[in-house]
Design a protein that fits this description.
This protein is α/β, with parallel strands linked by helices. Helices cover 36% and strands 24% of the residues. Helix 3 (92-104) links the parallel strand 5 and strand 6. The protein is globular, with a radius of gyration of 18 Å.
Length: 171
Amino acid sequence: AGFAGNDESRNRLFEILARNDVDTSAVITLANHKTTTKTRVIAGHQHALRLDEEDLSGVTDRDREALSDAVLAALGVQAIILSDYGNDAVSTNLCQRVIEAARQSSTPVFVKPKGAEVAKFAGASVMTTNLSELVLASGIAVANADELARAAKSLVKSLGLKFLVVTQGAD
């Protein structure tokens, strides 16, 4: 689920998804936007650079409501993943509506926030975050395993999560 522009990138994406029997009914096409694209530059066998083209600046509350409605209409799946890229597509309203509907149907919700804005994911089943995001979200500095555990437990409790996965590698 998400937003796509009315352009060639969207068409290519939909072709790939159709070939793999992926339902696109929860993808909202925005007439005056470009589809987000991510281009990776590889040097030898090394990922050297990623170029992102993205602009959701004109997304309206009506667009976000349409996305929320489309996601709710697509429920009935085995699990839901909400991944926030910090582009304002994953609104608090969408998150809370989806998490509540999923809870009622015993569907697990896996979430990946971007930065410190985690409150909108309250009640999710599982959250994955990196160490720096955990520090921002919990407000607890982490310099050792005990502080890591304290920050993680604090976040689990404050958001009502069942599980929290914290990656400690490169952010």
